[in-house]
Structures are given as structure tokens and as C-alpha cells.
Amino acid sequence: MDQKKRLNILDHLKKKNVKLFILFFIIAFVFLIFSKLSNDYKQTLKLKVNLVNVDDEILLKNDSTNYIQAYVEAKGFALMPFLFDNSKVLDINAKSEVTTKPLHFIFDVSKHKYLIEAQLGSAYDVISLMPDTLLIGYSKRASKFVPVHFKSAINYAVGYDLKGNYQLNIDSVKVVGSQEVVDTMSSVSTETLSLNDLKSDLNNIVRLDISKYKNIEVFPKTIEVKGEVVRFTEGTIEVPIIITHKPENVIINYFPKTVTLSYYVDLENYNNIEALDFKVECDFSELEANQTFLLPKVTKKPDFVKHVSIKQKQIDFIEL
């Protein structure tokens, strides 16, 4: 019995020793790794030049030579991200950090060493850079600005309508592409904005539609459309008729002397409407042979009034 107990104790101690050995081995290995990573190492990094702030009509050539070889010294910790991929993107401002020439940009690498060091970070000491100068090829497409045409199919709820006009955040966009196609473009339309039973203010992002143009890009690709939607009501008003372009030697008597206009207006402006805000004219010069009536037309109305119609479709007259 005592011998069995001694064997169990020995087995327990052996197992405990093995576990301690493994623990100390792991700790020693971790310390070894940390000590190695704390040392300074030298490595060559590939910096992929990425031009930013480039004009929309510029097409950069995806050239494999658009790289800078940076020979750096850094701690092992700092170089760990490059263990499996030794490349990094370097952002270069096309407006201020390169020289523009026909068909290529020139980037003075040695002159902009400070910029490379700043993007790599203080953990890296740049020893050398190759090449001294980098040529980045490009091609240029035609471009111009054209106005935007907003297309809508909006149905407002009963008693509601748009107050004023639609407000676009921009009124023109840049189109870029082949010279032949760009020259034919006079405007760009939006995709049709379709809304039903609208009774709240309009605030939508709408894409521009260039589907009918081949190999054309537009900048920006969307516009913002806003509009104030308020309650509207219908009103009527009597307005006198004005006869225009009647020869001085012609005397006529016409009836009626006034017409009734119906109109649609927002509630805020309903009480501000007066007959003087409208003008209804009959153009005598538009008479056809043997015609005994004139056609009234609304030639003046307030900007905030919508859907004006004349109840009397014709004005009878006789020559005296």
C-alpha cells in the first residue's frame, strides 16, 4: 500500500515537472521572440505610388514601374506587417507634389524624401530610395461642363403641392470621355424620380443617367434635390380683358369684359392674391378670316401661383 502511494506521488511530480517545463519553455520562447523583434533590421520596401487629387479627365496608366524601392532600417516589430507582403501605398498629391508634362507626371523622389518618411512613420529610418525620379504615364480625355436636367414623376397628396421650384445642389456637371461623344452632349438628365402621395418636403439623392452614351463618365454621379411641399388651395378671381394689336381704325365691342380665373396657390399666399397680379390678353392679330371671337390667354401671373385656367374659352366681338 505504501509502495503504491509512493508511485502515485512520483507520477504526480513527473506530470507537474513536465507542465512546468512546458510553461518555462513557452516563456523563454516568448522572451526570445521579443528580444529578436527588438533588434534593428534592414529591409527593402516597395512603395506603390498612388496619385490623388487627379483631374477627372486624366487616365493613369497602371504601370508596374510606378513603384519606389525604399531601403529602410527599423525594429523587428515595425517590419512585422511586411512579413508576407513588403509593399505599401504611398499617396502623392497630383496638384502640388508632381510636375505635369504631356503624357506623364514627374515625381522627384529624392526631393520628397520627407514625404515618404512622414507616411512610413517615425519607426522607419529611410536609408536610400530608388529611383531618384519617377515617371507616371497618363492619357487625357475630352471634358466639358453641361447643365443638369431634372426628371420627375411626382404625384402629390390631395391638397399638397411644391412651393416654388425644385432646388438642385448643382446646376451643371462635368462629362468626360472621347472628344467625338463629348462634343454631342448639351445636357445630362437625371434618372426619373418617382414618388406618390407626397405631403412632406422633398430631400432626395438622384443619380445622373448617361446610359445612352458610350464610354462616358460624369462627375459627380448624383445630385441632391430639395423642395418645400406645403398645403395648397384653389381660388378664383375676376380679371379684365386687354385687347392687343388691334388696328387703330378698327372699333369693336366684345363680351364679356372680364373673365374668371381659377388658380392653385399655397395657403400662406392665398390672401395676398389681387386681380392686378394677373393679365389676360386677346391678340387681335391672331384672328382668322370670318372669325367672330377672340381667344383669351393669361400673360402674367405671380410666380407662386400654379395651374391657372380661364373659365371662358372665347370672347365674342362685333365690329362697329
UniProtKB/TrEMBL annotation:
PANTHER family: CDAA REGULATORY PROTEIN CDAR. Gene3D superfamilies: 2.170.120.30, YbbR-like domain. The keyword Transmembrane helix applies. InterPro entries: c-di-AMP_regulator (IPR053154). This is YbbR-like protein. The chain crosses the membrane at residues 20-38. Signal peptide: none annotated. Keywords: Membrane, Transmembrane, Transmembrane helix.
